[in-house]
Amino acid sequence: MIPNHDLPLGHLTYCQICGSQNLELVLDLGHHPPCDSLLKKEQLHEAERSYPLRFMRCVECGLVQIDYVVAPEVLFFPDYPYRSGITETLSRYLQGLAFKIVDEYALDRTALAIDIGSNDGTVLQGFKAKGLRVLGIEPTNVAKIAIANGIPTVQEFFTESLAKQVRAEYGAVSVVTATNMFAHVNVLGSLICGVSTLLDDGGLFVTESHYLLDLVETVQYDSIYHEHLKYYSLKPMIRLMSYYDFTIVDVERIPNYGGSIRVYAKKGKWDKVSDRVTALVQLEEEKGLYDRCTYKRFADQVICSKVDLLSLTADLHKQGKRVVGIGCPGRASTSLNYCNLDTVLMPYIAEQASSLKLGLYSPGNHIPIVDERIMFEENPEYAVMLSWHYAAPIIKKLREKGLRSKIIIPLPQVHVSED
Description:
CATH architecture of the largest domain: 3-Layer(aba) Sandwich
CATH superfamily of the largest domain: Vaccinia Virus protein VP39
Shape: globular
CATH class of the largest domain: Alpha Beta
CATH topology of the largest domain: Rossmann fold
Strand content: 15-25%
Number of domains: 2
Largest sheet: 7 strands, mixed
């Protein structure tokens, strides 16, 4: 019997994959606003919604997850401000995914590739460059950017009903991708059924998600937020896909977002499975990813990290040093709110000129997000790298632009960069 993978809104008392009620609390981060619900100036005096953010572990299947489901239209609203294409490193990774799929799976150049949660069409630009037909599915207004850039996009949430319409209009799909959104979906059963509708037997479904092992090993508590309902490791994912007659045939670890897992699943039962699948499950077990003590250690490290970052910024403030933020990814909302960093300790966050977040304020602590040229003009004594998972290329670029500030890296351990 397949558990119900279409989740109700609100508090969950059971595992999102296997349905077990044997959930253990790993870390309670308190109540947080949705991470991408940035505010306009006129909203600063209005009430602000926040929701519980608790990191839980299923003892039965090993899935790590949060236990509160926020309505998707609250999280992924029309003016959702995230764009995957403005981060040069990420853009290369995403387009490289398309190149790799076409080459390694010998896709016909007339094939159709669909990306679910396609954002500004970055992944599909890669497929298009390889000559494939492409179609994006994206519910937010970022879809309009993709369309303007030549990527046909349906501006809707992906559903099984929409999958039937697409199949009827376009025919069978050769590959479906879901990058950095597969962990976001509360109606996951419907999504996988929709993907199955699009694909013929042997069709390829490729997902990318934050990888639990990287999260734990590098203390990435900042990647815990309401958009991420699940924190995948491979073993629970194999179980999930088997419910829907998909076989995971290959897997790889990739650097995206501070460490992700890319999973290749084929529709149907397949005996030819890469040795990397077995090897990664074995590594997860060797690393203690299914052991209670691993998560006790992780929780202790998170608490120490919070204390260290708050203490450092508070001490610098007492010394009269100015500390600002660099970059405003979704994960910054968790770290800033959990560590109680506000406009006293961090007067603004600098973003690049192409960001959709300029002129807005961070949720919860209401730190203004400004054009990075202000930071270059001021050159404050210190800056916290909130996009720390891409620190090296960002710091190199900032130094080339003339930034002289000392840069604080908050994770995995709080330290001042030597670069």
